[in-house]
């Protein structure tokens, strides 16, 4: 049964330490099992093992084996559940960080790399949290307990174990730093490949149109080759670490076996406490020796899980390294309830420069747009028109000065609420693989079928929608003309009853005269009873808006038309 979780409600994470403790306890149960087997060997050799006694010991051995398997399985299950919850939490944190970066942050992680970090790279954290963490605890407890048990019988066998064991961590540490670097390089390569593929897939039509496919093919091949080399490097290190471990644990077990064998033959009559070892004691030591190395072998086999897991964690953490945070974060808020008038917009000596850019698009810029006013922002390309709209939308925070929406200074705490009453008609709206109506509705709770119909009518798209019926839009709005795409963006804004401040960024760019006129009609219809701020180069749109501000003007004032 799938469990639903309310967004933002705390996650109930099962205890990892209990799960690991259970797995450690299961490993320690080998001690009484080995003791039982050694006892059987001793009694059989002495001819003292009756059938009843053997059945009793066999039954006890079986019970211990079942308890061991059950404890191990339960422990693994608990650790796994905990790890899945933790990975889910980290994914959510990564998503929050991504959503908390301004869409104007040019240095944001590329979409493909972000998808790779959130999907496959995050998956590498689960084995790290489950197998590696459990192996690390077992390695600290089980060998010590087994060495102490062996030492009770033979101090020399215990010494052999204790002196051969540290070789393993030393070599593992030597291999470990290479493993970390190789895993990080591997995951970086994976992210780059994903980012490259997604980026080029999006621009496939341009690449094909410009005859640039051959270079893309070569580059893709080079990236895949590089990923193959990185993958092989990780695998080589993983195999090397296992081989080192197997070698040293085999050496340790062999040394103990040689000592015990010769001791029982009377060749090495020392190393036990006083008298020589009995057959049962020898068997007991021999059974414990491989179990002593078992946790170390397990740790070696999951050693590269740690490197991959830490690299996955680093990739998720990198998603949060935004340069330009989105004021108010990604949180969604409902606009304030009650009857409202469209907001007045004021910019008060606003300055803004993109990080790392010396020139500031806006310096001490002021502007007043009355409630319900319509205003065109004009200026040369690169003058900062889109930047100004982004500042009004709270997608960027000014370096100095204030943006006021209906007298309220826009800042982190109220940005989400104020944004809820704005709509952005951008230069490059994204359309989803859905019907025209679906692309207007976007699953928004306040937008019903009637609102979608009205919005399509306002944008003069009702006939297009009728003609298309249930047909879905193709990738990148394939199937729509440029003008229809802008009018669809206008319909989206029109469908939301809460939105009374429209920010439009060059809505008529690249459109022919007739199409641009249709878009202007739709935009002005949308602007009725709403405040409308439009960045544009189009003199006809400026004329129809009736009021404009040239961005170069140091302190422009504008009133509603
Ligand atoms: N996300 C960004 N990161 C860094 N610099 C940016 C970013 N967006 C724009 N710029 C720079 O800021 C300046 C203003 O850009 P903006 O897009 O606001 O101008 P614009 O007036 O809207 O231009 P256009 O009319 O060509 O759309 C330009 O020099 C641009 O290169």
Automatic annotation (TrEMBL):
Q: Report the locations given in the UniProt record.
A: Cell membrane
Cite the Pfam families for this sequence. ABC_membrane (PF00664), ABC_tran (PF00005)
Predominant location: membrane
Q: Does the keyword Membrane apply?
A: yes
The ABC transporter domain covers 345-561
Q: Write the protein's name.
A: Thiol reductant ABC exporter subunit CydD
**Domain named ABC transmembrane type-1: which ranges?**
18-308
> Alphabetically, which GO biological process terms does the record hold?
cysteine transport
Q: Name one GO cellular component term.
A: plasma membrane
Molecular function (GO) terms for this protein are: ABC-type transporter activity; ATP binding; ATP hydrolysis activity
Transmembrane segments in this chain: where? 20-41, 53-74, 141-174, 237-260, 272-293
Classification lineage: Bacteria, Pseudomonadati, Pseudomonadota, Betaproteobacteria, Burkholderiales
Instruction: Give the top-rank taxon of the lineage listed in the UniProt record for this protein.
Output: Bacteria
- By its UniProt entry, which InterPro entries does this protein fall under? AAA+_ATPase, ABC1_TM_dom, ABC1_TM_sf, ABC_transporter-like_ATP-bd, ABC_transporter-like_CS, ABC_transptr_CydD, P-loop_NTPase, Type_1_exporter
Checking SMART domains in the record gives: AAA
Q: How does it sit in the membrane?
A: Multi-pass membrane protein
What UniProt keywords are attached to this protein's entry? ATP-binding, Cell membrane, Membrane, Nucleotide-binding, Transmembrane, Transmembrane helix
Q: Does the keyword Iron apply?
A: no
Query: Gene encoding this chain?
Result: cydD
